[in-house]
Amino acid sequence: MSWKTIVGLEIHVELSTKTKAFCNCENSFGKEPNTSVCPVCLGLPGALPVLNEQAVKFGVMAGLALHCDIHEYSKFDRKNYFYPDLTKGFQLTQNDRPICTDGYLEIGDDENKKKIGIRQIQLEEDTGKAIHPEEGDTLLDYNRCGVPLIEIVSQPDLNSGKEAREFLEKLRATLKYIGISDCKMEEGSLRCDVNVNIKNEETKECSAIAEIKNLNSFRGVEKAVEYEEKRQREMMEAGEKEEKTTRRWDDVNEETILMRVKYTANDYRFVPDGDLPLLHIDEELRSAVASKMPELPDQRAKRFQKEYGLSQYDASVLTGTRELADFYEDTAALFKDYNTLSNWVMGEVLRRIDTDTNFLVPFEPKDLAELLIEIKNKTINNNAGKKVLRTMFEKGGKPKDIIQEMGLTQISDSSQIEDMVLKVLDNNPQSIADFKAGKDRALGFLVGQVMKESRGKANPQMVNELLRKHLDK
Predict the structure, then answer these.
(1) Which residues of 145-181 are buried (b: 16+ CB within 10 A; e: fewer)?
(2) Does residue 456 carry a pLDDT above 80?
């Protein structure tokens, strides 16, 4: 029996504006609870909202980046529901006339591209945050009330947990590239609801959709989809049926937990907001935003392949974040061996930083370029270069100063290296016999002994050449 998994995502992204969506309260994370609030975001009687222009521009930028239609007119609605973190009793959002519709985002490599449709992007405001201390009380922090959001709703074009994770990673990279959000899942600035069901390819029968709420990690999204695939398949194979459900993800036990069954459709009683007029995005505003759009990840990756001669894989890694791509390009302007630079950035640099949080490199691109020039000029060898880079990360300093302080300058005097080679050969007659008998490892052992004798400073290429010269005699 053949099954098809169907996945749709609803992604909430907090926008990095200075102030909130409809008032002048500061939009920042981590302030003392309830210190960034006012009558507007608290929904006090008589308070009137004023739309944040920058939030609108960020919404347009998201639409352009995701190939959407940007609508000239859109409207705000009141989504009515009662919950302690929603002081007004409604949320300002866009329902049937959102700012952007009908876009897409591509996932996969050049050989296996797949377009994932974007149904719509809507502007809205965030709610407050409920905090549950161990004592059992529930505390409410309203600082987040009114923080501007975009909700991105995908088409149900994803067919696995892996694809869902790839889509989210690509989406986050794109949104961070255009600078509209920091997309920090750990701080709640990017959150995701996942809708999953499966279809019997033979009978065309579908399971009921399970909505998994507020996932805050890419791994959680992937695992939740995989768990639901298995749970729903076993249920259908047993002839069981269920209503549409809302579930949560238990990251410890790696399973979804039932929260409630949706016997009826949600009735939010959407009505147009009477305090906010139709949102008009004219061609002048759209063009002004478009003119300031940065180069997007896919475009930049293709340029890296063409301009720097990099492989598709290297280009995609190096353009994974805007900061990393900028760092590579700034270094490439000073060091023209682009593939060597790529190897060092992807290997020695990336393993020491976390690009998911902040791109923090404690030295300038010109310092890395200087180090690689010293290696290329054979002032130091590759291993010594790695030691220098480690010191640059841990203690700081300039490459030339570190090389001098650590005494790492490479020995390239052939007579000095030959003396060490002859000494090693005199001390290892068995290795000479092994080499003559065709045992290739013997040469590696002898090279290692010479490098040990030179304290790692000997030019490895010259060591190999001189060893072969004397072994062939």
Answers:
(1) bbbbbbbbbbbbbbbebebbbbbbebbbbbbbbbebb
(2) no
